[in-house]
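User: Hey, my collaborator sent me this sequence without any context and asked if I could get a structure. I don't really work with proteins. Can you help?
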Amino acid sequence: MPCSSAVRLHVPPSHEGPKRSHAVDLLRRGCVNARLLLLTKRCPRKQQRVAIVASRPGHDCLGTYVMRVQRFFATARGAGVAFLVVAVHTVLLWWNGWVHSIVRSEDAHLGSGLSHCCFMRFDLYRVNPPLIRVVASLPVVASRPVVQWGRYSVGSRDRCEYLVGADFLDANGAKTIGLIQRARWVCISFSLLGAWVCFRWAKVLSGMVAGLLAIILWCLSPYILGHGATIMPDVPSAAMGVAAVYCFWQWLREPGWLRVIVGGVALGLAELCKFTLLIFYPLLPLLWLAYRLPAWRSRAFTRSDWLRQGAMVASLLLLSVYIINCGYLFEDTLTPLEEFRFQTTMFTGCDSLNDVPPEGANRFAGTWIGKLPVPLPANMVQGIDTQRYDFERGAAVLFTRRVAEAWVVVLLPLCPGGQGAAGDVVLSGAGHGRDNLWPRLQCPVARRDGRARAGAGDSRFR
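Assistant: No problem. I've predicted the 3D structure and written it out in structure-token form, which is a compact way to encode the shape of the chain:
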């Protein structure tokens, strides 16, 4: 195939080989030249650049340049599609956070986050780590809301975050929905992080098409769209969990101390989102052992390699524990285990919850284990016990009763004269402590017919 005049190829005499090899080389160069013409026919500058590269002495691999050009265009198209999907995802989350009413526990999360920022304490809503609540409350703190701490309590059995959340709604009235919207919009960033990690991970494993498929599945998932526009920790914990495992996988591929630091920070931030991710501490070392097992069987993994990478894994886990303590501002870290007052049968050693003293107990008191300092914040340890206490006393039954009340609230207004009854159902559950799980602001019927709250703006909560 003759060379085109648009791209002149020059082969110096000093680089010519035998006649047959030179003929094959020219044929290959001619084919490459034709492909380059198709790629660069609308770009004179690119044609000039190809001509310069092709005319360099000793340059006999124009195929590499062609592959780079093709890869650039493929990456650019893929990045454009990914950007479009993320833009649609962001708009949908923004819209969900703007038009939808306050969901269950959002007021408690926001009130607890405000207490973290105001008092630098983490007693409220300690059944989950504070990172998401703090991030959501930052724009609300900048808005200078009205806060009331009259029912703030630090008792081990108290779950007064719901009372503080209800007081927050009462104090701010119709302005509450605007504050909730700002807090929701900040939390959208976690969903965007999860989308990017899924795209990046799939792209590294299987190419651009796999990356686009992964980001589409994340961004258009009903669960992500439904929970990503709330203050709840579900989507942020999923995004941070994927990011932590991705960083650990990068370390598995190419072990290095820099990746140990990145993985430790990512794991610590993930643990500050939800206690469910504590499963990573036994899981990640097991993944490391399973990943290195084939190399050990083939004797390609020496003892020094085991020691070196074992030290890296231990350092990664220790760094994540340090990040957790930073998130809690080192609140009562290294407290001896016997000084905690637990409420569950698991940590008290009692046969039933009725046998647990009101002030709590500790099965490790007076033992050598009780003398050991706990390298975690005190409220994190107490939060795990409180969560276990909810499970032991049958929180699932309470949740089932609330779901039944929700269906009554939905169905009764459809019947003649049923609106007042629906409001009475919601108001009848408004008690004290944990019984006040569902703020009455959640139901516009209760606010309108039950006269539960004063003020206008009811339509904004529909």
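In plain terms: The two ends are 72 Å apart (CA to CA). You can pass these tokens on to your collaborator as they are.
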